[in-house]
Amino acid sequence: MQLTSTSLGNGAAIAREFAAGDADGFAPDRNPQLAWSGVPEGTRSFALICVDPDVPTVADTVGRTDMTIPRDQPRCDFVHWVMADIAADVRELAAGSCSDGFVAKGKTAPAGPAGSRQGLNDFTGWFAGNPDMAGAYLGYDGPYPPFNDERVHRYFFRVFALDVATLELPTPFNAGDVHRAMQGHVLAEASLHGTYTLNPSL
Length: 202
What we know:
Blueprint: E1 2-4, E2 21-22, E3 25-26, E4 34-37, E5 45-56, E6 75-87, E7 92-93, E8 117-118, H1 123-126, E9 153-162, H2 175-181, E10 186-196
Antiparallel strand pairs: 1-4, 2-3, 4-7, 5-6, 5-9, 6-8, 9-10
């Protein structure tokens, strides 16, 4: 199975249009176009996950003007998008079809292919302590890495072909729930990644 995009080149920089933040604040936050082919026989649905594996693990180093986040600081995953139960006949998500703007406190009913379900991304936890921003962040919210990070962040888009039409998931669900539910049901997967940084020196 192959995953391609007219919005981003594999390994190339992600355009501001598809990011949640830029040097001035919030960015357009449109989901990139994604298309997949070479789907195996027996596919009954797809799942999609987008993860940044380069997120700093020391929270009090983020966003400070008096220091940079060291490149070698331990990193963790940050989920930007999780969607399940994408119908077996879907082969493309158009740019901006699932997200077209950042919504404070999260999108309550993000768009998506008929029958699909959007999960919580990790902005839900990131903004949990901020009364102006706290909420359930469903669907796609794009890159917004710390401006003081010495590392360029990578964003991996992964599409999984599954042999079940629906996954057994709680409401709401997150990427961990999807990974557990699709164990033993993955027929194929495809991925691509882009990069993004707000550090002017990189």
